[in-house]
């Protein structure tokens, strides 16, 4: 970590590995293979086709997928996927698609699906202020549902599924925007997984879509090409000019995962340690730090917590900024505090945070009533 | 220009100014204001809101627009605009929208419009192999057309409008993807101008849309938010996570235009000189180099030309690559050769190209029959 730099605990766009940033910084001037700035390389070049091929192979390899899936790199973020999924699988269908409403992000997908067809909210955590996820026995999925949609990690509320919900007979679709490639994943139990890049795998401006070949076959004929998984797949993510730089960044991140970290299991072990250290600080604080989510549903990616008063939270943020700890404010929809611990956040950065939290609690304990 | 680097004459993504690349390379490690990598800065930060505000002001200022317009920064390229425009202005309308079909790119917009409503191709250059643009008297625009759509510059064929076609009473919509901010433009004669960034103003992955307030008021109610100009405008291009890095790059490019170049008139003068030097080489070659477009319609941005045989063209490309001149192949749809002379291509780079062309012609003149 460059000592001049602030440590980044932002909810996203988040930190990227220091070695990747170094390579990108050099490639901005001169990408080694082509001798051009990476921003000036044609998306129709052999170089870029090889970038896409290697990136797809790296993602499939990290997930242990042998066949039957394709990987697309699209624009428009998870938001565009909220629409493309029901355009593909719900338009003209009478059985309702099933959605789990477990927090801010999974909730946003639902009105977009309703534009295209019927939706059944299989579980809604809003009455409980999104403080817990459903347990498996609470989900009565219909065997004929066109698909089940959920988000594996809720960044705002700091909750993460520790099991795979739904029936294997119903196409399972998952928004993994905030934990894709952060841990092993039984990808072959999913019909479609999507993840925007700006948490764990790259910069804002590109979204990974991993989907079964049979989903591609079900695309209706009348969609504009950029919203059509089949057209995008046929064009190898080059239907129209793709975000070359963002895709190249993802390639470097997947190389880092393979070569520097080793595997998704190894990444998971590091992520578990990081989260454990922050949650341990919360739990040892005698209520000075108050975790937002139920303990069983705690996210390894986003630790959402509160202090006794909004004023004390503001003081925490000011002190943290002054100490070079950036991005610790909670999401604007819920306020409070949040430490995001995406793949590129190092154990050393987490230790700095935890020690800052211990000091702050020590100094301000008098301010916490009861 | 970094002496290690190849000179980039690519049709796009194209060259960017050397000083901008240098600033980006540093901001990849540490953006000066925030102390973070530019890839890790939140799109909800004050920093990013100021980037968007300054970028919008720079674009309006360069174009001399005082009021009545907004500037949006969207994903999805010009391709997404091919759909958003008719979704907004043609859905449910009975009078046909008017399209000028002057080359590869303007042609691509037409089928996307037909999905939404009736289209009248006001002029079609295909029977003449897209070797000329229409003259003003050839365009019989209907006063009640919902809009007229055309492309100001055809990158593939190397043709550029030197006048503003259509009636001022019909909303004029222009794809300026390949010449936006390359010359002064009477922007207030347009209802909507769009331009993807990757020619003159930034990297692939972001598209500028400049539109009159009254267009925003005409957005139908039932569009997904990311396809809705009103939702995007209300959110100040932050409806969902925008491509922060690409937008920041555009800010640096507009600063370069204002501070280093001075104005769009000054940029135009440089671009005129560059194109004049290349076309002069074509015209002085006694038919060794054969310009594709009619002389009056020649583009300042893209010089499309041929040699006597495809074999000689391949030899030209190999020799050019060996001499450090990159990206001179023609578009895959037409083949041949093309020198793209976007804003960031320097006069010095053009002189190197012209001198290479003179040498190549001298050495291979025997190969050109007649």
From TrEMBL, chains A, B:
Keywords: Amino-acid biosynthesis, Aminotransferase, Cytoplasm, Pyridoxal phosphate, Pyridoxine biosynthesis, Serine biosynthesis, Transferase
Catalytic activity: 4-(phosphooxy)-L-threonine + 2-oxoglutarate = (R)-3-hydroxy-2-oxo-4-phosphooxybutanoate + L-glutamate; O-phospho-L-serine + 2-oxoglutarate = 3-phosphooxypyruvate + L-glutamate
Pathway assignment: Cofactor biosynthesis; pyridoxine 5'-phosphate biosynthesis; pyridoxine 5'-phosphate from D-erythrose 4-phosphate: step 3/5; Amino-acid biosynthesis; L-serine biosynthesis; L-serine from 3-phospho-D-glycerate: step 2/3
Organism field: Amantichitinum ursilacus
UniProt feature coiled coil, ranges: none
Record carries keyword Amino-acid biosynthesis: yes
Assembly description: Homodimer.
Assigned protein family: Belongs to the class-V pyridoxal-phosphate-dependent aminotransferase family. SerC subfamily.
Details of cofactor binding: Binds 1 pyridoxal phosphate per subunit.
Positions where N6-(pyridoxal phosphate)lysine occurs in the chain: 199
Protein name: Phosphoserine aminotransferase
Aminotransferase class V domain residues: 8-353
Residues engaged in binding L-glutamate: 44
Binding site for pyridoxal 5'-phosphate: 78-79, 105, 155, 175, 198, 240-241
Function: Catalyzes the reversible conversion of 3-phosphohydroxypyruvate to phosphoserine and of 3-hydroxy-2-oxo-4-phosphonooxybutanoate to phosphohydroxythreonine.
EC number: 2.6.1.52
Subcellular locations according to the entry: Cytoplasm
SUPFAM superfamilies: PLP-dependent transferases (SSF53383)
GO CC, alphabetical: cytoplasm
